[in-house]
Design brief:
- The structure is a single chain.
- The chain has 103 residues and is an alpha+beta fold.
- It contains three helices and four strands.
- It has a two-stranded antiparallel sheet. A two-stranded antiparallel sheet has the order 3-4.
- β3 and β4 form a beta hairpin.
- The longest helix is centred in the N-terminal third of the chain and has 10 residues, at 3-12.
- The chain is flat, with a radius of gyration of 16 Å.
- The protein starts with a helix and ends in a 14-residue tail after the last strand.
- The mean pLDDT is 81.
Length: 103
């Protein structure tokens, strides 16, 4: 089932009012036959969230997969000490994360 059909089924069942969708790309950490080629390119990850009360904005900054967890908590308005959780920093925050230190 593709995403369009899945969302349509949720809409038909009246479930979209309390559903948040999160779509993210793979972090490409596992080595493969293409690793050497991929390492020559600028690698970007996709993280999208949509649903009720989710801010609609684009954030273009250096981040890592560790920043996804605190970002999700931030979307749910969970109080994050210093905008951080585990080793990540919410992407809604202006605080520097681990990835930004290596840029």
């Amino acid at each position: 089932m593709n995403c369009y059909c899945y969302v349509g089924c949720l809409d038909a069942g009246g479930l979209l009012e309390n559903t948040i969708f999160i779509i993210q790309s793979d972090h490409l950490m596992m080595g493969s036959d293409f690793t050497s080629r991929l390492n020559k390119l600028e690698l970007r990850n996709l993280f999208m969230a949509f649903g009720p009360n989710i801010k609609s904005e684009g954030i273009d900054r250096i981040a890592s997969m560790m920043d996804v967890y605190p970002t999700i908590l931030d979307m749910f308005e969970y109080e994050l000490p210093e905008d951080a959780a585990a080793f990540g920093v919410s992407l809604y925050s202006d605080k520097q994360n681990l990835g930004a230190g290596s840029a």
